[in-house]
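Re-run with default settings, no changes from the original entry. Doing this only to confirm the output is reproducible before filing.
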Amino acid sequence: MWMILSDSHDNLKNIEKAIEIASDNHVDHIFHLGDFVSPFTIHHFLGDDHEFIGVFGNNDGDKLLLQKRAQGKILNSPNWANIDGKKIYLMHEPRSLYPAIKSQLYDLILFGHTHRLVIKKFGKSLIVNPGESCGCLSGKATCVLLDPQNFKTRVVEL
């Protein structure tokens, strides 16, 4: 199981809930799509029972310290990964969303920034914006659990 979240904006309560949900659901990969904000939050996402990959958002402050504490696991946005044979495109702001969709190069296209939940299939690509995990703009804090075998998703409220 994979977990996708974004826009945590230093909300430690919801970050801790997300990590608890990840543990309860045997998540082996956590994807964070930016706007951690402060370096003190990053250690919550790192663990021995799952892999972590993230991209920087527009509100991330001390990127050097975030990167150092994340042990190099936060990338510039946009970026890509190949995990378990799945091609994944990750970005915070959806500036390259439509070219990524049109290319049909990716199995999974992930973005954040808008604080709006999106789960849509376009051709071979599943597009996911997990909404905001902080709950500060919409009042609803969410993340998405995804089965990498069949790409079935489940929205989880924090």
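The first strand starts at residue 2 and ends at 5. Residues 33 and 88 are 12 Å apart (CA to CA).
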